[in-house]
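Q: Please design a sequence for this.
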């Protein structure tokens, strides 16, 4: 049976994107990037802003790390340095994004606060680059995977932000307010997304 990695058509790229965004959602099926979700998802606007930044960073760093691994680390036999190398690439790129956001939208920059530089240590972004190593993807397929994973994460945090904005947390028992209700929302959403598992294999 032919796998998506063997295909070079546009259809394979689209399927990889859809799979990464929905059937293998990095937040709702792998539970990566939870710290940012708990901190930022109180309202829709900052959730969407952070989600957009994550899509951009995840897509670009997945491609950059793919090139670094394929053309630098692997040929030189330095695969054992891939973790620290990927972290350096992500940190440098996030610093660039932070400067751009500060100049373009100061309101969004202030709304995201400490969580924008914390994209550097968002395990979802590093996870995408590491998961990419286990697949024989081309650069285009890697970019599709990164974009799909970022889109899935952004979709999840935006929906969570919308639900939390509607929920009157003051009416909840003290133990459920804040992170408690957020984890319950994530758990219920995860049950729905787990139902997609196995529908598309990438």
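A: Design:
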């Amino acid at each position: 049976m032919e796998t998506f990695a063997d295909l070079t058509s546009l259809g394979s790229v689209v399927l990889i994107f859809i799979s990464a965004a929905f059937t293998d959602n990095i937040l709702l099926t792998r539970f990566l990037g939870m710290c940012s979700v708990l901190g930022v998802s109180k309202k829709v606007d900052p959730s969407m802003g952070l989600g957009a930044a994550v899509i951009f960073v995840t897509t670009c760093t997945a491609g950059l790390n793919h090139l670094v691994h394929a053309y630098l680390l692997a040929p030189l036999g330095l695969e054992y340095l891939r973790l620290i190398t990927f972290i350096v690439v992500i940190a440098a790129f996030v610093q660039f994004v932070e400067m751009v956001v500060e100049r373009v939208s100061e309101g969004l920059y202030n709304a995201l606060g400490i969580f924008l530089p914390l994209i550097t240590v968002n395990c979802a972004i590093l996870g995408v680059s590491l998961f990419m190593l286990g697949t024989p993807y081309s650069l285009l397929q890697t970019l599709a995977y990164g974009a799909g994973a970022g889109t899935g994460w952004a979709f999840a945090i935006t929906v969570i932000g919308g639900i939390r904005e509607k929920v009157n947390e003051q009416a909840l028992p003290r133990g459920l307010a804040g992170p408690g209700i957020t984890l319950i929302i994530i758990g219920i959403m995860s049950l729905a997304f787990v139902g997609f598992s196995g529908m598309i294999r990438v």
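Q: Thanks. Anything notable?
A: The first helix runs from residue 10 to 23. Helices lie at 10-23, 34-40, 44-73, 82-104, 106-112, 123-132, 139-166, 179-194.
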